Sequence to fold (376 residues):
Amino acid sequence: MKLLRLLQQKPLQPSTFSEDLKPYILHADDGGHLGVGYVLTHASPQQGLNAIFTNMESQLRQWHAEGKTGQVLLYVHGGLRKEAFSLDFAQKQLDYCLSRAIYPVFLTWHTGTTETLGILGKELLKKQLAVSSLLKTPMAVPHWGWQRMKQNAQALSREKTGALYQFLTKLNTLKTMFSQEVPLHFVGHSAGSIVIGHALPYWCGTLNNSLEQVSLLGAAITCEAFEELYGPALCNQNLKQLQLVNLSAASELKEMAWHGLPHPSLLYGVSYLFDPETPPGLMHFIQPTKLAKNASALLGMHHHIATSYGEQLEQLQEKWQLTPNQLEILWVDRQDELFQQAEPVTALESNHAVLDRQLFGYVVEKSRQPSAHVDD
Fold:
């Protein structure tokens, strides 16, 4: 029923979006390459990137002249987000950020269902992927889609043609312009946590920059990848604060009502079905206990956090010798006041899917509080 309603929704058209939104959108194509976009388009990838920085430099200079620090915020959406819906989110948050001397850049990296299926179709036509490989198990197609998404998340900042690699390289030059680092805040929802994780070794390691804050909403990155990618930046204090916003155990297990029947968070599907290296076969569904044994531990899931690090991350704080302000976690429920402060959401929308829409304002305000940061 939910899928049917989503398919019946009127698609967002290019005319829906103002051309003024262009200097705030960073486009990436399949493979993570810097792109031109499909809805709000540029003549070339480089033209789009230049438009961002021409506008950003002008805005930062204006804020500096007004005595304001100014900061840059990079937002990375999660999976199942087509470009039009990413642009819609950006358009709704733009004025909110600018009014707070924050220059937002919204990375759209084409994780929508139709976009992913389009990539799958092209690979089948080019015989880069065998049809037989998609018929082996019930989860073969979504498993392929998730693995491809993770590959793109890595390529965005690990390849020199990557959209995020080129963005961060250019952002690094602003230090000479303003004689200091421009405060930078990353916000990632769900699979966006994987994109940000792969960007940290380049930004904090290779370029040796600091990062004011990273906020992850319902992170879909595995605990193993989290330790590998985020750990060095936290331990070296290049990353001044990491904030995790996750669903409470109750909200996680009762995502939404589907014909009156609750079902668990989307992250359960990622953990048990999509993320393991081998897609689950039919026997895994007949014997569900096998799914639990092969599950990937995700940073955004209550059970995995509590088991791996303690509910308030105390074990991780001690292991990495982090300061009290450097790492924090917030457990939220759909009934919480925080969830009621943003746009209304329907009963059909899952808790995990609306985390970014409902709590974007909260994490932005949190990043603007001096007490939230670690003193140099």
